[in-house]
Design a protein that fits this description.
Layout (H helix, E strand, L loop, with lengths): L12 H12 L16 H18 L5 E3 L6 E3 L1
Antiparallel strand pairs: 1-2
Helix pairs in contact: 1-2
Length: about 80
């Protein structure tokens, strides 16, 4: 998926598939079969995306969008 691609809702089957495909390019270990009982799939996807973001930040591969003074900044 390109950054300009619109994602479907993360609560829909299509949206889950889109997010799994995107995260799968980062890690081969994304497997919904490993989910413990309880968490919703969209919560798992949020956590996986946060882990991906943290890994990129740690490796110095992140990108910064927004203002210089951090008043309106996104790090991805």
């Amino acid at each position: 998926m390109s950054p300009a691609t619109d994602y479907a809702s993360k609560k829909s089957g299509r949206g889950i598939g889109q997010r799994l495909a995107a995260l799968g390019r980062w890690s081969e270990n994304i497997d919904l079969a490993d989910l413990p009982p309880g968490p919703a799939v969209d919560d798992f996807l949020d956590a996986a995306a946060a882990a991906w973001s943290a890994q990129r930040f740690h490796a110095g591969k992140h990108r910064v969008f927004g203002t210089e003074d951090a008043s309106d900044r996104i790090v991805a």
